[in-house]
Structures are given as structure tokens and as C-alpha cells.
Amino acid sequence: MSEVHAVKNLDTVKLVSHLLERTYGQQIADVWNLGLNLALRISDLLSIRFEDIHSDRVVLTEGKTGKLATIKLNDKAREIIERRRAEYPDHVYLFQSHRNRWSLRKEPRPLSRRYVSLAISMIGEEVGLALGTHSMRKTRGYHLYKNTNDLARVMKMLRHSSEAVTLRYIGITQEDVDRDFVELEL
Q1: What structural domains does the chain harbor?
Q2: Which of 15, 68, 144, 175 fits a 20 to 30 Å CA distance from 107?
Q3: Run means of pLDDT, 10 residues per run, the chain, 186 residues
């Protein structure tokens, strides 16, 4: 599995969303946009059930860590969730697979990680970036760090326990640190 990156340019973030919608449909674009706003791992994002959404929060137990994640929804996230709930009132999952709709006896399932990963990586190739499902989480962390310069906040949002892991994860390189030293003169 190759390393994927954060999208550091906000115009490119919007372009990826547009290309996902145009090429793969609204559902995959919604996965991208909600993933950017919730900063969850893809397995947790796809496992969200409508019952996990409580007015202005998503509450779920993270699959990888077992930690309870309580995430306050911003306006964009609420809009996506409300639109999906209105369009698919009988769905269990926020991003429910349509593949088994012809077999009424099958239990509902979320979209597969593989399908979402393929869609995002194909659009990444189109825009010239190494993108994958972790790119949503990394992008959120990168932009929070760039807006606040508060590594502790980024660590808390991503639920990391090490500064070094967080810096590497969001793509802050030695070049970025060097540029900050050169650009900021006191």
C-alpha cells in the first residue's frame, strides 16, 4: 500500500469533490466531503449508522482504537447528513451500498472501503496527487494545523498520542519547517 497525502491546496480539495461527483456520483462525493469534515478513518466513516447521529453530533466507537469518538457536526456535515437522510429514509447506514438492493433477504451493508479507495485514488491520478481514503483525514489535520499552528489540537482531533506521528501523518516535512523559519522573521 503506497503512502497517500493530504491535499494542501483548498481549490484542489474542491476539484477532487467535483471530479468524484462527476465520475462516481453524489454518494462518493459525499463520502469525500464528510470525511474531510469528520476526520475519521474510512472504516469508521463508512460504518456510521443513522442511529449514531444525535442532533449535532456523531457518536461511535472507533474500530482501530476502541476509543469513543464524539464529533460535533459543522454546517456542511449536517447538510450532507440531512440530505442523505431525506433521500434514503429506509437506509440503516449513512453510506449504504446499493449492490444488494435486488436481494431483499440480505442485510444492509455500507459501501466497501475498496470501492471508495479505488474512486479516490483514480481521481488522485487525474489531479496528479497520491490520494487514498486516509487523504481526507490527513487533509483535515493539515489544514487545522496550518490555520492554528496548534499541534496539540490536531493531535486531539485525530486522537493521536505522539506529536511526531501527527506531524508525519499530516505531511509537515522538514522543508515546511525550514520555510517557516525563513519566512517568519522577528
Answers
A1: 10-183 (1.10.443.10)
A2: 68
A3: 88 98 98 97 97 95 90 96 97 88 75 97 97 96 92 89 86 76 79
